[in-house]
Amino acid sequence: MELGLVTLLRTAWIAVTLPIVIASIASSKLSSFHQLVSKFAKRGKTMQPRSCKFTVPDRFFSQVYIVAVVWTTILLLTTWLYAYKMAPLTSESFHILHLASHLMGGSHIFSFHKSHLTALEHRYRIWRTVLLLLLMEAQVLSRLFETFNVSNYTPSARMHIFGYLTGLFYYIAAPLSLCCTLAPKVFKFTLNLVAEFIVKGKNQMPATEIDWCGSVNPLMKLGWRQWIGSAIFLWGWIHQCHCHASLGSLQAHAEQVDDYVIPTGDWFEIVSSPHYLDEIVIYAGMVVASGGGDLTVWLLFVFVVANLGFAAAETHKSYLSKFENYPRNRFASIPFLY
Ligand SMILES: NC(=O)c1ccc[n+]([C@@H]2O[C@H](COP(=O)([O-])OP(=O)(O)OC[C@H]3O[C@@H](n4cnc5c(N)ncnc54)[C@H](OP(=O)(O)O)[C@@H]3O)[C@@H](O)[C@H]2O)c1
Fold first, then answer.
1. 45 CA: nearest ligand 1 atom
2. CA dist 16 → 23, 163, 318 (Å)
3. Atom 23 in ligand 1: which residue has the minimum CA distance?
4. Which coarse location class describes where this protein primarily resides (predicted)?
5. What domain count does the chain have?
């Protein structure tokens, strides 16, 4: 089951990334394919009013974030409980693990051939997964908060229904990709707990006292990759909140309700979509925190880069055609490169 889920997710990421990559190739032979993909990807400022029948209002995307928060929270809480019950890690365990890692030459110990993993390394990986889900939870919670309180959707802004469905797919598959090697075991563990609860009833269940230190301490003792990854994530996350606040305030400067305005200040002076660049930084942080050895996490990251690279190029093009005075020295999303 574990391999089946991993293969399914990897295939899905490749299947959704490939069309975007092909559509991004600058070739006249691919221009009709590019138009087809960009029609599906258009939203808000990049979509001409009434250019497509199958659209939903942009603000409907908040429903996607509600699903994202519920799903990520379920994955996080069940995985955390599983880690706490089945993979307790004491300070001594970390000393042994770090010593062994040092003696065996660092990265060797994190090789993802399961058969070579000792029980300790396996526990370490479980807690690393909890950390990744915590980072994802922070991301989806902030996006949900922002859609209701920060973003200012223009009343006429719409998106293709395909974009809405892709968003739903994305926020189911992304958190699952961060924990897919563990998910079947966590699912079985949770099912057993629920079955025990149903059979025995609340009063017969063994009293569980949560040791809060024991449930948080292992997260504090993970390795340097997790600390650096979390720091990169935090940097992108804070800056993205800042960018979203700037975009949310733009409508106040518009002459009409439905008007778009040239964003200015901070990274907006260098690139057209710094919030997309931040999203790439956020997921790069997750790749680093994952240890860099999980192909599924890499494929998720490649999708984010391809998808947002494409969206940034479309946004940049729409700014250049909409505003005559749009600064020509700005890049789409990666400074001095793209
Ligand atoms: N992980 C992924 O694969 C993925 C995919 C897509 C998005 N995202 C993330 O989700 C976040 C939002 O993405 P998005 O595509 O919705 O961003 P967006 O199109 O730039 O819109 C963000 C908000 O700002 C408003 N806005 C944008 N430019 C404006 C302008 N020039 N003048 C006035 N208002 C403006 C939009 O209004 P309107 O709605 O009225 O246009 C919307 O309310 C981003 O940070 C992005 O990184 C992630």
1. 41
2. 12, 12, 24
3. 151
4. membrane
5. 1
Residue appearing with tokens 């230190």:
213
Pocket of ligand 1 (CB under 6 A): 43-45, 58, 151-154, 157, 170, 240, 247, 250-251, 260-261, 263, 275-276, 279, 304, 307-308, 311
Residue 240 lies in a domain: yes
Do residues 216 and 131 lie in contact, with contact meaning Cβ atoms separated by under 8 Å? no
In a domain, 113, yes or no: yes
CA of 275 to the centre of ligand 1 (A): 8
Asked if the model's pLDDT at residue 20 lies above 50, the reply is yes
Q: How far is the CA of 63 from the centre of ligand 1 (A)?
A: 15
74 located within any domain:
yes
Going through the chain in order, the beta strands assigned E by DSSP cover: 55-57, 158-160
Name the 3-class secondary structure at 51. Answer: coil
Q: CA-to-CA distance for 204 and 214, rounded, in angstroms?
A: 25
- Among the atoms of ligand 1, which is closest to the Cα of residue 151? 43
330 part of a folded domain: no
pTM of the entire structure? Answer: 0.89
Q: 314 is in which domain, residue-wise?
A: 2-322
Tell me the per-residue pLDDT of 245-300, one tens digit each, with 9 for 90 and over. Answer: 999 988 776 666 567 889 998 999 999 999 999 999 999 999 999 999 999 999 99
- CA distance to 35, 42, 134, 146, per residue, from 25 (Å): 12, 18, 36, 33
CA-proximal residue: ligand 1, atom 46 (nearest): 276
